Amino acid sequence: MLTTYQQFFTKRPTKEIAQDLLGRMLVYDGPKGKVGGWIVETEAYLGVNDTASHAYGGRHTNYSKSLYGNPGDLYIYQIRSHYCVDIVVQDQGEPQGILLRAIEPAINLPLMKQNRSQTGVAISNGPGKLMMALGVQSRAMDGQPMEKSPLKIELDQRRTPKQIAVSPRIGVNLKQKDGKALNRFYVAGNPYVSGMRKRDSDLETHGWR
DNA sequence: GTTGTGATGCTCT
DNA sequence: GAGCATCACAACA
After folding, report:
1. pTM of the entire structure?
2. CA-to-C1' distance for A11 and B6, Å?
3. Superfamily of domain A13-196 in the CATH hierarchy
4. CA(A80)–C1'(B10) in Å?
């Protein structure tokens, strides 16, 4: 039996959920205080048939087993000394996920600055950077249902993007079948989107309606 | 402002 | 021992 919260993360295409997450509030109620921000960039990973997915070809290891869990579970993994977070989507056993790639800081910016030792957009304009900004530097919450975890998406708090932009995913192997698939979504013009160039940012509205 | 490159920690083969 | 769903900084314009 799925909760209402879990149902948000299943029963419709992963790419649709990924776009629906843009503008939602990501919060972490951690030991140093509560921090959070608006999600401005996501990527969809489509499971066993997606060459860029950790579950490609049905790969099922101890490391990535959380992907096979319930919708709304956290999948936290480490890559090159950095931590990233996925939201598990689709029903249990269907290993699809949505990578949260960037947030616009909204709650407790001073603490995020301190966590990052950086200023400006560099605080959270990338998947590893946003986790550092929140203060999550371990896999302890891997596999937990977000609903019961200190790291969660507040579905009832949201802003509306003026326009959603689409592109190939970042950092995946371009030579493989899905290397250039258009599975990355972001708030057009938001300066905190990874790789966003200054001349393409909308500094008035940050791309929100 | 933009581009290139080296450091990085851990898992799986 | 390879291969990463990355980041920071130096170099160039």
Report:
1. 0.97
2. 44
3. Methylpurine-DNA glycosylase (MPG) (3.10.300.10)
4. 8
